[in-house]
Amino acid sequence: MEGPSVEELLAKAERDEAEKLQRITVHKELELEFDLGNLLASDRNPPAGLRRAGPSPEAELQALARDNTQLLINQLWQLPTERVEEALVARLPEPTTRLPREKPVPRPRPLTRWQQFARLKGIRPKKKTNLVWDEVSGQWRRRWGYQRARDDTKEWLIEVPGGADPLEDQFAKRIQAKKERVAKNELNRLRNLARAHKMQLPSAAGMHPTGHQSKEELGRAMQVAKVSTASVGRFQERLPKEKAPRSSGKKRKFQPLFGDFAAEKKSQLEMLRVMNSKKPQLDVTRATNKQMREEDQEEAAKRRKMSQKGKRKGGRQGPGGQRKGAPPSQAGKRKGGLGGKMNSGPPRLGGKRKGGQHQGGKRRK
User: Fold this and answer.
1) pTM of the prediction?
2) Residue 132: CB partners within 8 Å, gap ≥ 6?
3) In Å, what is the CA distance from 210 to each residue of 102, 113, 201, 282?
4) pLDDT, tens digit (0-9, with 9 covering 90-100), for 48-78
5) What residue numbers bound the domain in which 29 lies?
6) Structural domain includes residue 317
């Protein structure tokens, strides 16, 4: 049996090469739009093959996805490449498609009182050098902190200023002044923190304008001071009967961006099932009870408001149990049925008879 000739082998090789080129070459009427930074390809060609596919277009969809993916890969092979740790990688360009944010834009941090004052007055910060010349030691030292220049806390002798009490301890006075400065800075820091969280703190003097602070105000100030540490109050000491602080929030856990396709598919199918379901996803009994409770609470609030309003309007009661401003028909005790003692008004039935005539109560002459 004779083997294939040379011409047949060459023809077969040409056919194989043509098939390979056909697999990587895709012809489209309209060129695709590529965003290689996001690995995105947009096909603007009308899906004519899907219309002819009928009720089962899976094969046409797979062929269309394969062709578009091949065009995207062809574009990637045209990018400049570089070698990173024995691997050949392509450098992607900057993305051109603006994708929407998943999270809202973070709000700017509110300004402190000093920043607001500096902006109002046009004060600009001046950058100072960290090292200054210390004339006492004859060295360059830090401007602040440990071993700083002109450190007056290391002096063994302090001159008593003019007009000061000669018996006053200047060292203790200096220490007390430093404590006051530290306390003032801490109060300003808490104020800025409270302003950022839209909370309220005690006044600058540490006391309420009325002379005392309520229990709620003291508790709020204490809570803010506790959570203002680096550990958010986790390691702060608590009183014997103090309740454990509530957690300020839980760290949100998000699904991974890639890799877990099964969970993503399951969540999307569940969403589609809920959207296509004809049965309402609402507990009617629970919703009705909630609406009834809200209506009862509104009515109770209205009644309390009306009762408080009536107490404020009603003054002291006059003689006979009558309130000032009340109608005369509601005043005093009534005698003889419908008619009672009245100072004014038309005669009524059932009052005392005087002179054989049926008069409605006593009348002033």
Assistant:
1) 0.31
2) 140, 141, 142, 143, 149
3) 48, 25, 15, 51
4) 777 777 777 888 888 889 889 999 999 999 9
5) 6-90
6) no
